[in-house]
Design a protein that fits this description.
heterodimer, A: alpha/beta, D-Maltodextrin-Binding Protein, domain 2, four-stranded mixed sheet, 21 helices, 42% helix, globular, B: mainly alpha, two-stranded antiparallel sheet, 2 strands, 1% strand
Chain lengths: 570, 319
């Protein structure tokens, strides 16, 4: 017995060793050679004072599959100029909130963070540096860019520190709309470019096409419409459109009454119930992809890239990668046109209701940063006129030329940019370094050129022929023209409510999490139910929200909105 | 009143002590060899227990662990009052029990069958192929499973339709009641070969004379399996089984996390995922720790109970 026992134990020990050695591969990342000092930097700006190369870690809450690891044209240029190598880290497997929560728990921070909605956690943990003194001393360009909105960077009523540099473009004018409801160009063409204003129009166009073409050329069934509802993008693709379709702007999970500033969880609005009822109807008649709430993001993208999905309700940044694949294959008639679709004629899409400058998600420097002063100088450089042109336009003579004082993108570069954007980003690095303060689209620099490459003429040159054909049919020059004008609605005094952070671990935060869990289960259930059961499920959903304490949450959120208005109107 | 025997036990104790120390001295190399492991266990298993203190605090990472607000049992009270906790506990226990039953019987049967094979080459190939999936990440496995069970050209649905068992594709991944089964089966596919290795090794260690003797006695293959092979691996089996029972409540969450989707959360959410969502993700470290403590206490109890039952039945103990 004893002998056998020993044998078993030694066997298990051996197994343990197998594991230990398998997992014990040392991580030599830090030792990779980062210094490429062979090219002598020819500029004598502040950042280059200390030429000794350093590697900094940047944890980004948003995955960027096109991140170039400083190997792109722009990356090499910046490295040569500043000696700074950025190593980016992205959420692996889980969400950005896991990544930052674990970071706080382990008390080990990279130099820079882009925490999205998790800044509050880091601030509560004392992980972020107050950037105010650094900006005052080393950041003239940063200060200049934020300009009159500089006071919006303040953290809260009680804490006037600046913890993050918001990355939204200052003074942004929207020339293009990336959201709304999407339809493939071929669907529109075959229907003779009908009016697409309400969900009924949208449904009719899809229906007509599916009846005519139940299968694609290679024999696979056509999919009427698909939603990206299997992962966190359920918020983008399923629940946010409920705002837009019923005449409200996106305020996160809350609907804020513009006059009284009272907030309620937006699912409690009767209008939105009708929107979800329409989705339920789409499912009932078989036009909604049954896998909408089960599929992984990859599956969703693969479907779009196959060209079988006629309609989407999503944002361009979410489906763009898949659309780029279609473009790269030359299937332009399967790419998407975007429309502001509402539940019925009485609503107007409020996507572009003004917010003023949203001092929202941004970049922070952590307490573990090796050299905060050098980092702020680096960020200040990126925010300078020279830096902004660099990160937006690229390198002169390579990615753009100056002709008669105007910056022009050569045709071959533009073709790659519009048709194979993933490769473009990865090889040039343009779009990968928008980490510091910057001006938004439509702002002119001292030379009379736009800082960004998004301006009406440029947008039009980036359209494919399919886009142009569709837009011509609707008498528009950009998709944005189809939306109500920016000044159609009064500006929101609180910016956008989705930028309001809950106090971490507070009761409201717990209730919020509960309502999210309930929503993620009940909304798909209601949409996929038989139409007769829809109301029953939706009523249960609302009752469960009540049970979780949604009234308390609404009251708390109302207070937060009012506090923000008070803070910003100072 | 002086007890008569006062001096005697004292003497025997010191004698015993002496014997212990002299024996320890004799075996000093053995002790020294095991010392690193004791230190290892101490550092990784005992030192962190210090962090349990946070469960009784309202822990904020800004301050040190001693400089926190003490809240007594508040976190536990909140935990035991949350309905969701009981739901996730049910899911955890259901999935781990299913996993335990399937994850032990099938690999044993598989090992038995492999053990009976004569062709070494064939045996080795089957073994290697069967344990390869163990090295595939759950992310990939989840992708495979979702694709196989997809209604949009998934192999399983296509097969069922081809065989005229169903008319329209079934949304396997959207049906909560199927989730436990799907999870158990994918886990089985992934781990069957790997789990059977240890049993195969135990079988290889059985004295061949026993088989020869039983051949002489006229035992057939199945008799030998039943009376020699199975009893031969019983200890191995029980050690692994009892240790696995200890892990019943802490089954991790990657499989559930990756295979689950919003529609089936009522069946897919497990304790660890709950701790992640309502503890760590929301920076409620104290709440997360409370769940962890609950986990550990239940695990220890389960191991002790399992060992107790085993001891009573077989008069042997592994602890």
């Amino acid at each position: 017995m004893k002998r056998r026992m020993q044998m078993v134990l030694s066997l298990m020990l051996a197994l343990v060793f197998v594991f230990v050695t398998a997992c014990g591969k040392t991580n030599n990342e830090g030792s990779t050679n980062t210094g490429t000092t062979n090219g002598t930097p020819n500029v004598t700006s502040d950042v280059t004072e200390k030429a000794d190369p350093i590697t900094i870690r940047l944890a980004s809450g948003d995955s960027n599959p096109s991140w170039d690891d400083m190997k792109s044209d722009l990356g090499k240029y910046l490295l040569e100029k500043t000696g700074i190598t950025i190593k980016q880290e992205f959420p692996v497997g889980g969400t950005d909130s896991d990544m930052f929560a674990l970071m706080v728990a382990s008390d080990d921070y990279p130099d820079l963070v882009m925490p999205k909605g998790n800044a509050g956690k880091l601030v509560d943990a004392g992980a972020l540096l107050d950037l105010r003194p650094l900006i005052e001393k080393y950041g003239p360009n940063l200060k200049k860019v934020y300009g009159e909105y500089f006071n919006r960077l303040r953290w809260s009523e009680d804490d006037d520190a600046i913890y993050t540099l918001p990355q939204g473009g200052v003074g942004q004018i929207y020339f293009e709309s990336g959201g709304g409801f999407q339809l493939q160009h071929k669907v529109l063409e075959s229907a003779g470019y009908p009016q697409i204003k309400t969900v009924q129009d949208y449904e009719a166009a899809i229906k007509a096409y599916v009846e005519k073409n139940p299968k694609t050329a290679d024999g696979q069934p056509t999919i009427g419409m698909s939603l990206n509802g299997g992962e966190w993008q359920i918020l983008i693709s399923v629940t946010n459109p409920a705002f837009y379709a019923t005449g409200a702007p996106d305020d996160g999970e809350f609907y804020v009454n513009q006059d009284t500033l009272e907030a309620i969880m937006h699912y409690q609005r009767p209008e939105e119930r009708e929107y979800f009822r329409w989705l339920n109807h789409m499912n009932d008649i078989g036009l909604l992809d049954k896998e909408s709430f089960v599929q992984k993001y990859d599956q969703y993208k693969a479907k779009i890239a196959s060209g079988r999905v006629l309609g989407l309700i999503d944002q361009n940044w979410d489906y763009g990668e898949a659309e780029n694949a279609l473009k790269a294959e030359g299937k332009f008639d399967s790419t998407y046109a975007r429309f502001p679709v509402t539940l019925n004629d009485t609503f107007q899409d409020h996507s572009f209701q003004g917010t003023g400058y949203i001092a929202g998600y941004g970049l922070g420097i952590t307490k573990d940063a090796k050299d905060p002063v050098r980092l702020i100088k680096f960020l200040d450089y990126l925010a300078s006129d020279e830096g902004q042109v660099l990160v937006n336009w690229g390198i002169e003579g390579k990615h753009y030329n100056v002709e008669d004082g105007k910056r022009v993108i050569p045709a071959d570069v533009q073709a790659m940019k519009s048709n194979d954007n993933n490769t473009f980003k990865k090889t040039t690095g343009i779009g990968n370094y928008l980490i510091s303060a910057r001006y938004g689209d439509g702002v002119l620099d001292p030379t009379g050129n736009y800082y960004t490459t998004t301006f009406p003429e440029q947008i039009q040159t980036s359209y494919s022929d399919a886009d142009k054909k569709t837009l011509a049919a609707y008498g528009a020059t950009t998709y944005k023209d189809l939306w109500p004008a920016d000044d159609a609605f009064p500006e929101r005094k609180y910016g956008a409510a989705w930028t309001l952070p809950f106090e971490t671990g507070s009761q409201a935060n717990v209730i919020f999490q509960k309502t999210q869990d309930i929503m993620k289960k009940r909304i798909p259930e209601a949409i996929l139910a038989k139409p007769a059961d829809f109301d029953k499920i939706y009523d249960t959903f609302l009752k469960e929200l009540d049970g979780a304490g949604v009234d308390k949450l609404n009251a708390e959120f109302t207070k937060m909105v009012k506090d923000r208005v008070a803070l910003w109107s100072k | 009143m002086k007890p008569l025997t006062e001096g005697i036990p004292k003497a025997s104790v010191s004698k015993k002590e002496n014997r212990f120390w002299s024996k320890a001295f004799q075996q000093r190399y053995l002790y020294m060899m095991s010392l690193p492991f004791v230190i290892w266990i101490f550092i990784f298993s005992y030192v962190p227990v210090w962090g349990w203190l946070t469960a009784f605090q309202n822990y904020k990472p800004k301050n040190s662990i001693l400089n926190q607000k003490w809240v007594g049992f508040d976190n536990f009270i909140e935990l035991f009052q949350d309905e969701r906790f009981y739901l996730v506990l049910r899911n955890t226990l259901a999935m781990s029990t299913m996993g335990l039953v399937v994850g032990f019987t099938i690999p044993v049967i598989f090992a038995l069958l492999l053990n009976e094979l004569r062709g070494q080459f064939f045996k080795r190939s089957v073994q290697t192929i069967s344990y390869l999936p163990h090295f595939v990440s759950w992310v990939v496995v989840a992708g495979l499973v979702t694709k196989m069970l997809s209604t949009d050209g998934g192999a399983v649905n296509q097969l069922l339709i081809y065989l005229h068992i169903i008319d329209t594709p079934i949304q396997f991944m959207a049906k909560g009641e199927l989730f436990w089964g799907i999870l158990t089966l994918s886990d089985l596919w992934k781990e069957m070969g790997w789990n059977s290795i240890i049993f195969l090794a135990a079988m290889a260690g059985i004295d061949p004379e026993l088989y020869e003797a039983s051949t002489v006695d006229g035992a057939g293959r199945f008799r030998k399996m039943w009376h020699i092979t199975l009893p031969g691996i019983r200890t191995t089996f029980m050690v692994l089984f009892i240790l696995s029972i200890g892990h019943l409540v802490s089954i991790g969450f990657e499989k559930q996390f990756l295979l689950g989707n919003p529609l089936v959360t009522d069946f897919s959410e497990v304790l660890d995922l709950y701790a992640l969502k309502y503890g760590i993700q929301m920076s409620r470290y104290s709440y997360g720790t409370a769940i962890g403590i609950f986990n550990s206490v239940v695990s220890i109890l389960l191991v002790l109970i399992a060992n107790g039952i085993y001891k009573r039945v077989t008069k042997e103990s592994i602890i």
